[in-house]
Design brief:
Length: 199
């Protein structure tokens, strides 16, 4: 790898180990083996490099999510219950959330920085639609290229909101996380208009 790639890999490591805001240029240099001047040469600034690191880390994590449903689990067959697929995919995603806490912590930290960092907000905002499209593709079991743009916008936003909420919940109450089946049951009850009262 060249210095540019080394710096990005070093920044991604720092993101997991130190977090977004606490990472310094010297931390990245130490993690990458590159020199301080190369950050400015290749990325313009440490902040620009860290923005690229959060985007790259998120894309890598999302690529793992696209492989989440186990091959041959039966949920991809014609006529399979959509809620069964919904539950199976969420179980796989929830497993990743539970085992990749440093990544989840970095994601939640970045969410908190967005209101006060316009450049970070713009960088994340640019890739958000693609993320929604990818989630729809995963949950529907179709290639990204076949996802209807309106479904990507509306249903993708639903999946993103649920994913973001689950990430935050995993840091606050990891022992009280729902299962994929819990989420599917909740969705079924809400869409069926079932009364959610004590019996």
């Amino acid at each position: 790898m060249g210095h540019r790639e080394d710096l990005l890999e070093g920044a991604k490591r720092c993101l997991l180990e130190k977090g977004y805001a606490r990472t310094t240029a010297r931390d990245i240099v130490a993690a990458s083996g590159a020199n301080l001047a190369s950050i400015g040469y290749h990325y313009g600034s440490k902040d620009a490099l860290m923005r690229q690191a959060i985007i790259a880390s998120t894309e890598e994590w999302a690529a793992g999510v696209t492989r989440a449903p186990a091959a041959g689990d039966g949920t991809e067959k014609e006529g399979a219950d959509p809620l069964e697929r919904f539950a199976a995919v969420w179980d796989a995603v929830l497993q990743r959330i539970a085992t990749e806490r440093e990544f989840i912590a970095a994601q939640v930290e970045v969410l908190g920085l967005l209101p006060r960092d316009a450049a970070l907000r713009e960088a994340v905002g640019e890739v958000l639609p693609e993320g929604g499209e990818g989630l729809v593709a995963v949950f529907e079991g179709v290639p990204d290229t076949e996802v209807d743009p309106e479904a990507a916008r509306t249903v993708g936003s639903f999946y993103q909101a649920l994913l973001t909420g689950l990430m935050v919940q995993s840091l606050l109450t990891p022992d009280a996380m729902p299962s994929g089946r819990d989420l599917a049951t909740a969705l079924r009850r809400v869409t069926a208009g079932e009364v959610l009262r004590r019996k």
